[in-house]
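Would you mind giving me a polypeptide sequence along with per-residue structure tokens?
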Amino acid sequence: MKGEMVLFKRVLTALGIGGAKIDLILPKDRFYAGETFEGLLKVLPGSSRQEISGIYLHLITESKSDEGTQQYEIDNHSITGSFEIDGGQEAFEARIEYTIPYYAPVTTHLTRSYLITGLETMGLDPKDQDHIEILPEPRVRVIMDAFDRLGFMKGRDDFGVYNGKYQEFEYKPPGSLAGKVKEVDVIFQPTKEGVFLLTEFEKKSILLDILDLEELGESRHRLFLPNEYLKAVIPASEALIQLITKAI
């Protein structure tokens, strides 16, 4: 009978009933891409002895598009190796350090992200899910503010859509450029020396619009803004408009 009870407890533990639980306590819920933070990891043992293969941390992003909502794994880390937990023992805590990848998608109305912390077990993995807001990397934020200062309007449909590799930001040009360009699509790529802007300009053409051949009016450019211009919005704006004017 005792052996049957032990087996029954193991089955329940494998199903996640009476098993260990995990909780990641974050210092805040808004982080810049590239920011490092320290979190408090808590593990609460269950009612019976349990073998843990490890503790993992995943950064997941969900993005909406015309095809529906897609889920992508942006980053994953193994925090510990294997260990055992005795049932009924006191909870234990550990501080962990994690850096949001600089390439992590920025949170927009189309894109959201969350951290999943889990215990890797033989049964159902106990998990903790924390939604976070990812803000643009500081230099990218300066460029976005420069677009705003120059009068570019954010596209409502495709601003911040993520396809698993790149996050695209759509802008509508101000009056001074609207006669030449219908929209500008931008992908930001931060580097140590500055930020690359992979841009696609959709130029205005009544004939192409009539013939439904807008793609023939598209031109792609790889622009670069060095760090010296990205310390403030005004110099970034001046450098950005020069690059755009030259490109179109």
